[in-house]
Amino acid sequence: MTARIDRLWPDAAEQLSDDDLIASIDHAGVRVNFISSIDGAATRDGLSGGLGGPADWRLFELLRRVADVVVVGAGTVRAEGYGPLRVSEASQRWRVDHGRAPHPILAIVTGRLGLDPGSEIFTAAPVRPIIFTTEDARNAEGIASFADVADVVVEGRERVRPETVVAHLTSKRSLDRILCEGGPSLFGDFIGGEQVDELCVTVSPALEAGQARRIARSDAAHPQDMSLATVLRSGDTLLLRYARSAPST
Ligand SMILES: NC(=O)c1ccc[n+]([C@@H]2O[C@H](COP(=O)([O-])OP(=O)(O)OC[C@H]3O[C@@H](n4cnc5c(N)ncnc54)[C@H](OP(=O)(O)O)[C@@H]3O)[C@@H](O)[C@H]2O)c1
Q1: Per-domain residue ranges of the chain
Q2: In testing the pocket of ligand 1, which one of 63, 110, 208 has its CB within 8 Å of the most ligand atoms?
Q3: What percent of the chain has pLDDT over 70?
């Protein structure tokens, strides 16, 4: 059964349909999506899945439905066991009906190419993934083994700069609806590079304590003001959308 989602703000509406939800998320820009416990943990037992629930899964799929490309860090691919990026049949139908490719492209960011070119994330991908990696990785052995399964883009010496990722996706590929699914290190870099237009964050009704990391991390702080765009509710779960604040004049 589809999880019930109501809108609390900016205008109240009950039992939103998929089309209602899509109306506020189907636009160009860089959107980041995370789930967090109330006390700020990004994981339970090392994974985000333990925090999730039906409403988060529903929105997660709709965010992928409208995306041209899903960007994810290699740490999340490894930790969460990402497989080939396939959206649901309903999402495929919606995408084709709206003139889009059946599936978004998966783009993986990795500094040291710690991925297996024989894994299904590549070999069973419905669309050839993109790998953003570094000159250091290019100079190491192994990069050639990815040539058959992905488009490898070298952007940066030791770290991939999110600015160049976004520029490549938008200018060279015309992929304007960019969804970043984390993880925290990549999100920290996106914040530092001032590349975040929107954040969707699901607040899971749980306290975690412990050593779990936050949804963003980086060596230096990079404060950025955001404005509340939508407040959705599903039972005890809040689904919040924040947009980049307009610069003050
Ligand atoms: N709560 C949530 O919604 C959510 C979402 C996603 C992930 N998570 C959790 O977050 C944890 C993983 O955290 P994480 O910080 O390791 O995730 P991450 O950002 O996905 O992975 C870090 C790794 O990604 C690559 N990477 C990220 N940014 C890079 C950059 N600018 N340049 C080059 N490489 C870059 C590097 O890979 P290489 O090591 O290959 O160089 C780096 O070691 C997992 O426990 C996962 O379950 C939670």
Answers
A1: 28-242
A2: 110
A3: 99
pTM metric for this prediction: 0.98
- The number of beta carbons lying within 10 Å of the beta carbon of residue 87 is 21
- The answer to whether 174 and 207 have CB atoms below 8 angstroms apart is no
CA–CA separation, 190 vs 226, rounded Å? Answer: 14
- Contact criterion met (CB below 8 Å) for 82 and 73: no
Atom of ligand 1 at shortest range from CA of 161: 31
Q: Which of 119-133, 142-156, 166-180 has the weakest average pLDDT?
A: 142-156
Name the CATH superfamily for 28-242.
Dihydrofolate Reductase, subunit A (3.40.430.10)
User: How large is the C-alpha radius of gyration of the chain?
Assistant: 18
Instruction: State the Cα–Cα distance between residues 113 and 142, nearest whole angstrom.
Output: 8
**Could you write out the three-class secondary structure of 171-224?**
HHCCCCEEEECCCHHHHHHHHHCCCCCEEEEEEECCCCCCCCCCCCCCCCCCCC
pLDDT for the residue 155: 87
Q: Is 196 in the pocket of ligand 1 (CB under 6 A)?
A: no
Rounded average pLDDT over 1-26: 97
> Average pLDDT in the 195-208 region?
98
Distance between CA 206 and CA 8 in Å, rounded?
Answer: 21
Q: Whose CA is nearest to atom 7 of ligand 1?
A: 183
Burial class of residue 216, CB neighbours in 10 A (0-12, 13-18, 19+): buried
Q: Is the pLDDT of residue 246 over 90?
A: no
